[in-house]
User: Fold this.
Amino acid sequence: KNTTTNQDQEILKHKKENTIYLIRISESCYQKTNSYKVNGEVKAIVENKKLMSSSGEVLLAIITKDSLRIPSYGDYILVSAQPEEIPSPQNHSQFDYKEYLSFHNIYSRFTLTEKSFFKTTYNDGNWLLKFSFYLRNKLVEKLSIFFVTRDELAVASALLVGFEDYLDPEIIQA
Assistant:
């Protein structure tokens, strides 16, 4: 099993009111039913008006209905919400999501509302990845013209471009 590193523990040590986290979005957002999920990397922490360099991967759950506020790959966001440790499973026979995330060096998460983060104008994402995410989204948009139901679109976009955001758990298990 992976163990938590000092850098990952550092993020949770700064769990204080009025702490601001500078986080870089490290992939494309995954749309869920009532929220968005994405991984990010903490680049800096501002605590007591002091800027401290930091690093560590985190999971972000963004609860918003305004899709324009959703950060893109490479965007930097300022977060005022407090980090939480990924919870262990309640039942020992249940899938261990905490252990799964630890294999990706993710040990903490943030739950963000519209008031707890600010999307900056800075983006340093790799141009090729940004372009590929853009093309993938455009292709899924075009596919939505030809497929009547959301389930059809979900299966087609997953098979053609690996876009799994629309897949329901029932379809995945089938």
Observations:
- The mean pLDDT is 85.
- The helical segments are 6-13, 97-102, 127-146, 150-161, 169-173.
- The beta strands are 20-25, 30-31, 36-47, 50-53, 57-62, 75-79, 84-85, 106-112, 117-123.
